[in-house]
Model the fold of this input.
Amino acid sequence: MAGFEPDEQLVEEDRRAIVRDKGTSKGKSAAKSKSGALPLAEVKSPDQVRAGLRKMADAQALANPLQLGEEVTLEEAKRLFHELQVHQIELEMQNDQLRHTQLELEAARARYFDLYDLAPVGYLTLDEAGGILEANLTAASLLGVSRALLVNKPLARYILPKDRDNYQRFRRRFTEEGKSSVGEFRLVRPDGALFWVQSLISSPQPGEFRITLSDISEHRRFEDELHRENRVWKALGDSRRASLLADNEAAYLDEVCRIVVEDCGFRMVWIGYAVEDAARTVRPVAQYGLGQDYLESVRITWDDSELGRGPTGTAIRTGKISKCRNMQTDPKFAPWRAQALQCGYASSLVLPLLAGGKVFGALTIYSPDPDGFSEGETALLAELAEDLAYGVVSLRERMARAVAEAALRRNEAQLQTILNNITEGLVVADLNGELIYWNPAAVVMHGFADASEGLRRLQELGDTFELITAAGEALPLEQWPLARILRGETLRGYEVLVRRRDRDWQGFFSYSGALARDPQGRPLLGVVVIFEITERKRSEEALVRAKDEWERTFNAVPDLIAILDKNHRVIRANRAMAERLGMTVEECVGVSCFSCVHGTCGPPGSCPHALTIRDGKQHAAELHEERLGGDFLVTTTPLFTDDGRMLGSVHVSRDITERKKAEARIRALNEELKESVFHLEELNQELERSNNDLQQFAYIASHDLQGPLHTVNSFLQLLERRYRGRLDDKAESYINYAVAGTTYMQRLLVDLLAFSRLGGGKLNLRPVALDEVVGQIVFNLQKAITDQRAEVVIDSALPVVVADESQLLHLLQNLIANAIKFHGEEAPRVEIFAENRQDEWHICVRDNGIGIDPRYAERIFLIFQRLHKREEYGGTGIGLAICKKITERHGGRIWVESLPGQGATFCFSLPKRREEDVA
Done:
């Protein structure tokens, strides 16, 4: 029991009680104890032994009286005298042996009481009603009560009231199921101190129960603190993500408060800003959790007054972390105590928010538990507060920068909006012909990469461009539009073809412009507006080509196309339609579509053209046409005049016969696939149930068999100690075999239980430093390393991997322990190193031991597979199977490279993962 030290006063009281018991019972036989345990021995004093022998001699003398009157010869008298001397010596020897035996028994009894009383585990014997019949010193010290005062008291008196139901269930499981049971609950000492215990229950005889008490308070505290720190780690990560995504300060502060409450389980969190007013007010700006009305009912300042000396005011005023460990007892929290307790707050932590070394606010956290913030939590929450302050400052800087940039952009936009968004090009030149501005449209029109290419003199543009009139003549530079404008002309719609001399590029442009003048009419600049008319020119040319191209395309399309009027007559049909109908294109004109396609006197009800004529919308349908010999996708698109009158529709039929056949085949295959998937799901479910049953069986078998094995082993050991020296060698060897067998079976069940547990639960993946893990393992195996004089060499470049730390430690400890165990005549030498292999790490353990035949390289990783007898090398044959299962759960593999007598190298792989991939 870690950390337990018996109460010295209670120990001394119980020792005095033991001495009194010894004094009052001296010379009496030890009777069977009230708990039903056998006495240590029935010890008799030498006087009692002599009195017993005298009674036996008197009885024999009375049974065989000496006959009076018989004559006794001298020889017979001498013989009788000699026998009397011999008997007297034998009696003296027996008396010495009895005294020696009595001393040994009293020493054994004292040792038993020492072991029982000072055992690291508390022992209590209870009656059926739960009353305490007997307790050792450890149990009395745990409960903080003298052992004499515990007797006949109910154990439930010392159990925390809210845990008593748990204790009763723990007892009922044992009494109703008849199996050894384990329970955890809290006990209360007379001084009010609480502590957690783990308890085992058994029944030495009917009507009595024996309960063990092991103090697990430190273990529970560590687990609770680790859980709480993990929750703070999550809050820290979530708040950092919120900072990256934030674009609004108020929303960001609300989100951080919500994250701290929901991730960490605190009662309420709020953020307050320090106001530089006369009262030095703390203004709440965000809050989340239970009892949010609390802030409306209290007044908090950061002034050095009664209302400012609380945790929040102190943190803002001093710039340091402030705590209220217990709101009920802290005198500085008196002004807010009633409201806080009503809201369920018991302690608080306040973290100042600093920017540039100055406090601008505080993050206040309320816990429902007294002293509800550990050192680890406080450090992590302080880091969260630093991130929060940095996030607020960064957000404010971003917002200020965004406002300034937006204002600048608005000013620039007002200046450039018209010029940058008009589709016409704009070029400005001074009166000397220096081009000083090109808007984006003008840059693009003239094929420039940017405006800087056009910032030159007009005369220089003659080296780059050539202007051609409609008559095909090249314009001299002095007749260019801008040159004419600079001479004072006003141009409107002057069209020319512009070509670039340096590459194959040309376009049609229309130029308009005039001189820009000041209010006095004096010329300032020459401005020319350019309209690109290349597309218009091309459209005019394209219109001429379009008719011919449309005619060719209409007849080249493989789809069946016809233009129908409102009366279902064919106005025009393409070649594919005419050939499918067995007619010429000319023969199709004027024929009713339903007569030539369907062979009917009127359109069928599903006719898409009829629907289009009815509602003026496009329609589509998949139809089977017997006369056309296949399936078709038929679409009809309405045709309208310019004034909106419907003329008819364009009727397009696409042959989809092969597609329909393919769809039918796909549907058949899908049905077969669905049936196969259904059977596969049934098989998967059955396999999952089978795996769960096997895992549950392994757990139950390995767990529940340990109790009976422990009992058998305990009684065998007791038999061995009790009758040592009284049995022959063969009986003692049988007992030794039985003890060894049950011990091995217990180890086997422990390993089997560990193996069965590996398959369940989620891996706690996180970055793990391999050198720290290996260092812990070397510490754990220090005794084996020292005993075998082993040398362990650790690579200094072991990496940090992403894994479950506890399972990785288990895996490596098995491999290193095996490397030490399976050694040859030389002292063991073990090397641990790692290799970087693209997307995974190879971690290896190399030894100089007995090696392994390559034929068994796969077999050794199977459960219960051993290559040596147990007498040669200990173990259960499960260790490497556990290693294999841990590796596969991490997505890796394990293998061995070895030859007999040449050592072995066990390696396993771990995939490389980034920390953010497992957060």
